[in-house]
Amino acid sequence: xxxxxxxxxxxxxxxxxxxxxxxxxxxxxxxxxxxxxxxxxxxxxxxxxxxxxxxxxxxxxxxxxxxxxxxxxxxxxxxxxxxxxxxxxxxxxxxxxxxxxxxxxxxxxxxxxxxxxxxxxxxxxxxxxxxxxxxxxxxxxxxxxxxxxxxxxxxxxxxxxxxxxxxxxxxxxxxxxxxxxxxxxxxxxxxxxxxxxxxxxxxxxxxxxxxxxxxxxxxxxxxxxxxxxxxxxxxxxxxxxxxxxxxxxxxxxxxxxxxxxxxxxxxxxxxxxxxxxxxxxxxxxxxxxxxxxxxxxxxxxxxxxxxxxxxx
Amino acid sequence: xxxxxxxxxxxxxxxxxxxxxxxxxxxxxxxxxxxxxxxxxxxxxxxxxxxxxxxxxxxxxxxxxxxxxxxxxxxxxxxxxxxxxxxxxxxxxxxxxxxxxxxxxxxxxxxxxxxxxxxxxxxxxxxxxxxxxx
Lengths: 312, 134
Hints:
By secondary structure, chain A is of the alpha/beta class. Chain A has helices at residues 3-12, 29-41, 70-84, 99-113, 116-125, 141-148, 150-155, 190-197, 221-237, 248-256, 258-264, 276-284, 301-306; strands at residues 14-19, 44-48, 93-96, 137-140, 165-168, 201-202, 242-245, 273-275. At the A-B interface, helix 9 and helix 10 of A face helix 1, helix 5, helix 6 and helix 8 of B.
C-alpha cells in the first residue's frame, strides 16, 4: 500500500463492522479492550454489531444440519444493515477477534454462499429478518493487519518490545480447514509478522499449530493439561518467555490450565499467555489501562517489568 | 487377482448413513494412516482415526461405542492433510450425531462442580454443549 493511501486511512479511519462474541464480553475482556485501542492507533474503528448473537462457537459439520447455521447468518444480516445505514465503510466485511467465531461464521457463510438452496432455507427460517443476500465477507483481525501492512503496524510502535521472546501460537481455527485458513495451514507466519513488527524476538516452535484440546477442557482437564504442557514446554525449550494467541479458548487452555499442568509436573515453569492485541497496545503506547492483565491467569507483569515495558 | 469383500446389508446401511450425514465418501479412504499420525488427541483414543475410517467403510456400527469419536476435538489437522481429500472430522461428527440424535448425551453439565463451571469461559461451555449434548 502506498504512503498516500496510508495517510488517508489515518485521517478518516476505517470503520469496520466488528463481531465480539460472548467470551470477549466476559473472561476475555482484555482481548477486546486491547484490540479496540490497538486498532484505533492504526486508524481502524471496530464498530460493534448492534443486536449481535452467539455465533454457535462450532461450525456444524453434519451435512443435513442447517438450523445451527442460522445464528451465524443472522449476524451477517446485521452487517448488511450497517452497510446500508452508512455506519461503516463499504466493502461488506465483518471482522472478528475470536478465532472460533471467525471459523464458525466464515464456514457458515461459505456454505450458504455456495448453495442457493441452503441460503433460501435459512432465510425462510428467519421470517422476521430481511433476507441475507450472501454478500458479506467474514475476516479475522489478523487479515486486516496484513491488509493495512506490517509496515504501518511497525510505524505505529512507540516503544518497541525488543528483547521480549514470544512464541506465536495459532491454534486451529484460523488455520484449518483450508477453506477457512488465513495463512498456510502447515507453515503459518502472520502472527510472527505482527510480533516482529512490534520488535519482539519471535520464537517459532513446532507446536505452534497443535490443538490445545479445545472444548475437551470442560470434562477432560487432564487431556488438555497434557497438551498445554507439550505446547508450553516446547515454547520454553525453544527460548520463549511468553505465548501470543488470538483465541480465547486456546488462551484459557494454555493460561488457566497451567494450574493443572503445575500440579502434574512439579518442574513446570509458568509462562504468560498474551493476546496479540495486548502486545500491540503495549507497543503502541496507548493507555495501559486497556491491557487488563487482571484477566490473565499467569501474571505477565514481572516479565514485562524485567524488560522495562510497563509505565508503573 | 481381484479380491471382493461383501458386507451385509445391515453394515451397508450403516456405511451409507455415515456417508449421508458426513458428506464424505468414506470408501475412498486408502488407509494410509496420515490422519492417525498427525492427530494431537490420538494418545487419548482407543482406536486411531484411520481405524475409525476402516470401520466406517465396513459399516461396523460398534464404532459408535469407541472413545475416539468423543475425543476428537475437531481441530481439522487430519482434514488438511488427507491425501484423498477426506474430512475425518466430519465422519466422527456423523457418528456423534447418530448417538446425540437419540437424545443420549455424552456429558452431564450438572455433574460438573459449580466452582469449575464458574471458571469456564462461555466459548468452552457452548462448544462442549454443542458437541456433547443433544
